Amino acid sequence: MAHPVVSKEEWLQARRALLAREKEETRLRDAVRAEREALPWVKVDKDYVFDTPEGQKSLSDLFDGRSQLLVYHFMLGPDWQAGCTGCSFMADHFDGTLPHLNNHDVTLVAVSRAPLEKINSYRRRMGWRFPWVSSHGSDFNFDFHVSFTQEALAGGTVFYNFRDLDVASAHDELPGLSAFARDEEGTVYHTYSTYARGAEEVIGTLMLLDRAPKGRNESATMNFVRRHDEYEAKPQTSSCCA
C-alpha cells in the first residue's frame, strides 16, 4: 500500500479522525462484552473423562478448585504428527497469562483428542507449561462441535460456529474456546463458546501487528504464521494442520 507523506498537522488531523473510530470500537467492544457476560447458562449433564498427567479427571476436576474454566479446543487429532500451526500460535500466548487468570479465579486448560503421550511430546517440543489434557475416547470434542467423524464429513456439512459449514472448509478438527462455571454445589454450566476467528483478540501478537506500519501483512488469514521453532524452515502452505 502506498502512503502519502504529509505534514505533522495533516497527520494529526487524520489521526484524530481515526481516534474517534477507535473510541467507537472500544464502546462497542464494552457493549458486546456485557452481552456476553449476560448470556444464559446450560447445565452440563454428561460425565466427561479426561486423561491428564495426574490421572483421569472429570470436567469439574479441571477447574482445579476455581469457579471458572476456559477450555481452548486445540487442534491435535489422534493421528496427527504435530499440533495445528494456528493453535500453536495461540498457545504461545498462554503461559504468561496463567498467574493472572488463576489469581482471578479462572483456570485455563487446553483439550485435544490426541492421546496424552502425543500431547506431552508436542508440549515438550514447544516448551509450554500450561495445562493440556486429552479427551481421547470421550464425546467432549464432538459435543462442543470442534471434532468431526469421517461419517459427518462425508455428509457434506458439519455444524461449526453455530451454523452448517461446508466440508470443503472443514477438517476433522477445528479450533474453539469454551467457558464453563461451577457453583458451590459443584454443578458445572456451559456459559460461552466461540469458534473460527472469534478468539482472535486473545492472540496478543495479532493485536500488536495491527498497530505496526504494515499490519498483519497477510494474503489470507494468518498465512504468515509458523510454529515458533519453524521460522527458519521451509514456509508452510496452511496454518490449520500438518
Q: CATH homologous superfamily of the largest domain, by name?
A: Glutaredoxin
Category by helix and strand content? alpha+beta
CATH fold-level name of the largest domain:
Glutaredoxin
CATH class placement of the largest domain: Alpha Beta
Low-confidence stretches: none
| Terminus-to-terminus distance | 32 Å
- The Rg value, from CA coordinates, equals 20 Å
Give the ordered list of helices and strands.
HEEEEHHEHEHHEEEEH
Mean pLDDT: 94
Shape, please? globular
Integer count of domains: 2
CATH architecture of the largest domain: 3-Layer(aba) Sandwich
Question: What's the story with the biggest beta sheet?
Answer: 6 strands, mixed
Q: Count the helices. How many?
A: 7
Tell how many strands the DSSP assignment holds.
10
Strand order of the largest sheet: 1-10-9-4-5-6
User: What percent of residues are in strands?
Assistant: 15-25%
Helix content: 25-40%
What would you say this structure looks like, in words?
- The chain is globular.
- 29% of the residues lie in helices and 20% in strands.
- A six-stranded mixed β-sheet has the order 1-10-9-4-5-6. Strands 2-3 form a two-stranded antiparallel ribbon.
- With 242 residues, it is of the alpha+beta class.
- The mean pLDDT is 94.
- Strand 9 and strand 10 (188-195) form a beta hairpin.
- The protein folds into two domains: 8-36; 42-202, Glutaredoxin.
